[in-house]
Write a structure and sequence with these properties.
about 150 residues, mainly alpha, Helix Hairpins, 5 helices, about 0% strand
Length: about 150
């Protein structure tokens, strides 16, 4: 019985989960992945969803690429590059967590308003804001001295 239900779930799985961004159906979401490759596939789908649906995630990605290229051009030390990578990763991770929290809150309350849902969403967004501001300040502290040095100021 359970095996036939599992086969039926696999047969009913949607081939393209990003076809309808607002109506993602993952009938197997409750099933724990049994192999590493499928775990990476699910993680990649999460990144793809975030990039396709979250404007701020795309903005953070493009800023990260710009800062990374600037840091390489300015010949930052490996330790300073590592600091930049960590701060960029924290911003992106928090953006993904924010997206997850928003999805879970929307799933649980639907289109109704609830003050606790607003608090959850606002605090998740605030965590991204705080990490973005911190990341910006760290980038300034690491890049400005190298920028001045490169141009002999």
């Amino acid at each position: 019985m359970i095996k036939s239900n599992m086969k039926q779930l696999k047969m009913n799985q949607i081939s393209n989960p990003f076809k309808h961004m607002n109506q993602i159906h993952r009938r197997e979401a409750f099933i724990i992945s049994k192999n590493l490759l499928s775990s990476f596939k699910y993680a990649a789908q999460g990144l793809k969803y975030a990039f396709a649906s979250q404007r701020n995630f795309r903005i953070h990605i493009f800023i990260a690429l710009f800062v990374g290229l600037l840091a390489i051009w300015l010949e930052l030390s490996f330790s300073n590059l590592a600091i930049l990578v960590i701060t960029i990763a924290i911003v992106l991770i928090l953006e993904l967590i924010n997206t997850s929290i928003e999805a879970v809150v929307d799933l649980s309350i639907g289109r109704r308003y609830h003050h606790l849902a607003r608090i959850a969403k606002d605090c998740a967004a605030a965590s991204v804001l705080v990490s973005s501001i911190s990341s910006f300040l760290i980038a300034i502290l690491l890049l400005i001295p190298q920028f001045l040095k490169k141009f002999g100021v």
